[in-house]
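Thread title: Can someone regenerate the structure for this chain?

I was given the following input by a collaborator and told the matching structure tokens would be attached. They weren't. Posting the sequence so someone can regenerate them.
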Amino acid sequence: MDAKEFREFGKAAVDFVADYLENIRDDEVLPSVEPGYLLDLLPKEMPEQPESWKEVLGDINRVIKPGLTHWQSPNMHAYYPTSTSYPSIVGEMLASGFGIIGFSWICSPACTELEVVVMDWLAKFLKLPEHFQHASEGPGGGVIQGSASEAVLVAVLAAREQAVVSYKESHPELSESEIRGRLVAYSSDQSNSCIEKAGVLAAMPIRLLPAGEDFVLRGETLKTAIEEDVAAGRIPVICIATLGTTGTCAYDDIESLSTVCEEHKVWLHVDAAYAGGGFALEEYSELRKGLDRVDSLNFNLHKFMLVNFDCSAMWLRDANKVVDSFNVDRIYLKHKHQGQSQIPDFRHWQIPLGRRFRALKVWITFRTLGAEGLRNHVRKHIELAKQFEDLVVKDSRFEIVAPRALGLVCFRPKGDNEITSQLLHRIMERKKIYMVKAEHAGRQFLRFVVCGMDAKPEDIDFAWTEIESQLTALLEEQSLAARKAGNVADLTQHFQIHLTTDNVEKSQ
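Best answer:
Regenerated them for you:
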């Protein structure tokens, strides 16, 4: 493919994507395919000869699109938003065109320095403590990771290595393996699965502590767990708190957790993958309480900032602790400018060596939308969630399970868990909207999240009509089945009575 053909293919692909996103409401949010559908549609080996890009683009429409779950659809209400925008798509395309691997400053100075700029922009926009900025005098700063999973793993690994070094200094009689065998970490039983996975990858058990009835983890619970572990000879390392838990978007009590962590010299990381978007709104300033005391935190730009996946911001109070834990230098990684300025080599801040030019799509998105546009986007999600919550409250057949949090409403039809399961099953079979279940204290409920690239009030009305009409149909079916079962029971009782009477007469 030469430049001329690339221009043709690229323009056609842009038109394809624009048409797809502009008309996404016309597609059912869930695909109607069975596992293995694509394996039967594609050849078993790559083509021996080149094929036309027009054939390829035609097959994307023919065989790929039917197998998509449409995450940018306004009828997507599962998990959390993974938003994109036209500026972000352009930024992704340009970064792919440059094709750089920015593991060090010399590999592309613009890649490193633009990331420093946009991470400081974002820290100011979210009103984070000043020490998280590269521009501050301290050793803190921000870095773009791929996902919250990577950010959490980086924090867990760095905290582990710092704890090993520190404990070895104070207890020289213990071997390194003995120390590592005693390490323990903490989080809430409401936290994301990536936190538990980080413990597996770090070979360090993570105790999932019970949240309160309001789904919140507090310092008192953590303090009890740490004291138990210390008494048993274990070494507390890190607590991963959550602002915006996966199930209900609950907010852990960061201030009380900070007090306990400071007392026991435990690293405190905050996973604010979704709720971090609320930091930018003054009406949600409560969410920022205690952040000046945490060691690290992460926020997914691909959830609220209209930057497409993958793009997770991570801030460190003392980046040297991560660099010291991950630093591996080889002669081919060195360059004459390293160590001559405050510009970091981000390869020391992450798991992989290579880095994508993610900062470019962030920069383009922030410039074309502006701070006001980003705040308006977050507020729109909140208003649409309020609209849905009002509809739930007005229908006496439903109940709210947890307080509405940003763009998430947790609700359920009144009754046992079977009704909730059957309702979701009906909705999933129809494929008009997409939601998922969650469970707490044995009670199942539905999560309705405002997602999609451009959700509107009429999309909320559409979703509610689908939900309440399917509950109506379900309850009518159950009522009819109950009546039928009741009639059969009455008839059976009638025959039993007459059969007993016949037997009595015969015996006489």
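The longest helix spans residues 457-507.
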